[in-house]
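explain this:
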Amino acid sequence: MSKKPIFSLDLTQRPPRSPRVRLGGYAILARTLDKGRAVLAGRAGEYKFDCPLDQHVLAFAGIKAAGLKAQLAKGKSDSDILAWIEQSSTTKPTPWAIAQWSAYQDQRSPGDAEYQEFFTGVLKQLAPQRSDVATWFDLLDLDDYVSFGGQA
């Protein structure tokens, strides 16, 4: 049986999908898959698979990073991965729970002082004049944009 080739974005040339992009209703998941495939292909650049952001969606979906990476290594498509998550999930989130969780993730901002300090520090480096960046997804999208030549 021949192994399927792994389609991967080259994350040294462009960012992964935004954490706002939904896959099966899940926020963050498409980005996590992009990073996992890029790691397997040796083209992840500065991006990390199984980072704290990825761990949010993995825990909610009820899957382990190692299991997901093994599925990605088989060359599975996004649709195949969604089917695997449905089958393998230990949490079995319902569609309404996924929608609610993803909506929360869209609006999640730094909570305690330590995270706020980190958030503010990164924002100062990227675009000190911007006052409209309030959520983690805002900051990630801005970082991706600026990292690949965009002007904040």
Summary: The first helix runs from residue 29 to 41. Helices lie at 29-41, 52-61, 65-73, 78-88, 95-107, 113-126, 136-147. The chain is about 55% helix and 0% strand.
